Amino acid sequence: MRKTAERIPLKVEVPGATLPADQKRAVQAALDANRGAAGALLPILHAVQDALGYVPAGTVPVIAHDLNLSRAEVHGMLSFYHYFRTQPSGRHVVYLCRAEACQSMGARDLEAKVKQQLGIDFHETTADGAFTLEPVYCLGNCACAPSVMVDKTLHGRVDAERFAALLVEAQEASK
Amino acid sequence: MSTTVYVSADASALAVGADRVARAIAGYASRHGTDVRIVRNGLRGMFWLEPLVEVATPAGRIAYGPVLEKDVEGLFAAGFLNGGAHERRVGNVEGIGYFAKQERLTFARVGLTDPLSLDDYRAHGGLAGLSRALELGSADIVKIVTDSGLRGRGGAAFPAGIKWNTALGAQSSQKYIVCNADEGDSGTFSDRMLMEGDPFVLIEGMIIAGLAVGATQGYIYLRCEYPHAHKALAAALATAYVNNVLGNDVLGSGKRFDLEVRLGAGAYICGEETSLLDSLEGKRGQVRAKPPLPAICGLFGQPTIINNVITLASVPIILDRGAEYYRDFGMGRSRGTLPLQLAGNIKHGGLVEKAFGLTLRELLYDYGGGSATGRPIRAVQVGGPLGAYLPESQFDTPIDYEAFAAIKEMLGHGGIVAFDDTVDMAQQARFAMEFCAIESCGKCTPCRIGSTRGVEVIDRIIGDHSRATNTTLLRDLCDTMVNGSLCALGGLTPYPVLSALEHFPEDFSKEAPLPLSAVGGG
User: Fold this and answer.
1) pLDDT tens digits for B125-152?
2) What Å distances lie between residue B100 and A13, B189, B280, CA to CA?
3) Which of A57, B6, B294, B425 is 20 to 30 Å from B280 by CA-CA measure?
4) What are A's interface residues with B at a Cβ cutoff of 8 A?
5) Which chain A residues are Cβ-neighbours of B385 within 8 angstroms?
6) Under an 8 A CB cutoff, do A142 and B50 touch?
7) In CATH terms, is domain B425-508 a member of 1.20.1440.230?
8) Searching chain B, which residue's CA lies closest to the CA of residue A155?
9) Cα–Cα distance between A6 and B234 in angstroms, integer?
10) Whose CA is closest to B238, among B199, B266, B271?
11) How confident is residue B520, by pLDDT bands cut at 50, 70 and 90?
């Protein structure tokens, strides 16, 4: 006689049960503030990144569950938009403009020097965790090129010397 | 009596130290018991004079620029509060040729007023257009906008009135007004300047659009690279709600209009209207096939007007002064004014709002004063990263949508980027393909794959691998992208590439850089 297959109990995982407390708080606050809005996912991801500096992978199932979306849909948003990051950044994010107006004023040269100065390429973080370097395509400061944005502060007419000074200023401001 | 001093709080002014200058002025004044009121205005649009300091005097607003922090003491000593002589003095700001020759309609208040003061806004003609619109019926508003000849300023130049009329005719219980503030084209900053320098005019324009088609909800989709504009809009929206400009009872009319700002997340493609709508809906910003037109089936499947910042901000003055007033500026089928942006390697970069019809050469030399480096201007890219590179022989083209179309170029959003003779046009062509590869939404193959193949083919041309064959291949690839792409990103990326190849072939036939293997001796 055939043996009845042993029933494997269905394991129900509560999304986010193992999330660190700060992440749990941030994602709940983001959901509570935006849940009712039409097209809520974009502002929710912004709110999480504003609070934590990035959108941790563990928050994806929580957001998906709450909005009745698949995890793939939330992950798809994160991978589509350049601004969202799924890994923590350095203490400061340096956005270097690579677009044409800045190129016309020496941005290609500046880019090479900046990478050398920081010792990293785009999307990387310095070994001391101070700076993450990201490319950006236009900061709307095209008549004062080349442009650099450090966190949310814009700087115009930047050359290698000025850039070095900006790094020092940023370090001092965060002390 | 207190003296009013203006120091801009626009992001570009802050980027060159305006905050430090304002603090230095306030500090000096308080130490010396001088009564100074500092107003943080928008940008006048003469970037080479920033940080610009203006003083209200009986003889008008006397300007000093560029003013550095260390100049402040000297300015006080020179009696700048009374318009005293100083080496930085540039005189009455409205008398400066660059500014005086402009025709500022949309930008009438930018740099003049306190951007976040609704009283200032009203005192300078603000809300007159909306008041007029409230007296009219929907169809009348649409007719005025149609008659004005206003065309979309985002790039495609589609007549605004026709779009509005389509949305007006669509039947639905919910319609939307969406402002495309995803100003991603390099060389453009007029949207940003307007949102920071006169945010109420955009709000007013959107309310009028709402009245015109029966929409009660608006969204401003703003790129996240503009944190200062975000702050300005948030503050202006709050003030507009408190003062019943927005909300359930627009200016006491009993009509409703709600408005919200949504931040993008660094995707150039979201400047394309259908991918912007998908992004607003909380999805990946992928381009939709048209039809259906957004005016019939747009945001959340409802009739939606989606217009650029400058288009919507031009509506209040059209309603206020009438369609004819606006239409009388311009040439041919390009009516009204266009806020042009002089950028890149240019001595006098800035914003020039002029009626259509002046030539590129006038802009580059009469306004721009030639290149910033003092070298000859070799190439100019008009209309952002998808615009063609123009050689000097085409500098006499008038600023007009049709004249530009005739030379296979587009005005786009009015950004003009100048390059001097050190530019390597083969590298610029390569960058156009590289940018397309980075920013492609991935929906259609010619754009997604074609751009990556384009970079490779251009690398082979630069590296002198079968140059003739690869040049033929590049032209063939461009043809596929132009004709086979779903939207303008893939469809127009070949423009800068082909124009570089056409007008600057010498840059593609230079001696190839030595390959690494030859240098390494391995």
Assistant:
1) 999 999 999 999 999 999 999 999 999 9
2) 68, 21, 40
3) A57
4) 38-43, 45-46, 73, 76-77, 80-84, 95, 99-105, 108, 136-145, 147, 149, 152-157
5) 99-100, 137
6) no
7) yes
8) B15
9) 60
10) B199
11) very low
When the candidates are 3.50.50.60, 3.30.1370.60, 3.40.30.10, 3.30.200.20, the CATH number that belongs to B3-100 is 3.40.30.10
Degrees, nearest 5: CA angle B21-B22-B27 = 95
| B224 with A155: Cβ contact below 8 A | no
B279 and A83: CB-CB below 8 Å?
Answer: no
Name every chain A residue with its beta carbon within 8 A of the beta carbon of B301.
none
CB atoms within 10 A of CB B423: 24
Positive/negative CA dihedral, A105, A108, B195, B165? positive
Q: Is B136 on the interface with A (CB under 8 A)?
A: no
The predicted-structure confidence for A75-102, as pLDDT tens digits, reads as follows 999 999 999 999 999 999 999 999 999 9
Put simply, whether B428 touches A (Cβ < 8 Å) is: yes
d(CA B383, CA B280): 25
- B227 and chain A in contact, CB less than 8 A: yes
Q: Which residue has the tokens 């009739």?
A: B303
Q: Which stretches of B32-92 are DSSP H helices? A: 72-77
Touching check for B234 and chain A: CB below 8 Å? no
Please, what CATH class does the domain formed by B330-420 belong to? alpha beta
Domain at B118-327, CATH homologous superfamily: NADH-ubiquinone oxidoreductase 51kDa subunit (3.40.50.11540)
pLDDT, tens digit, 9 for 90 and up, residues A39-79: 999 999 999 999 999 999 999 999 999 999 999 999 999 99
Q: Please check the confidence at residue A1 and state whether its pLDDT lies above 60.
A: no
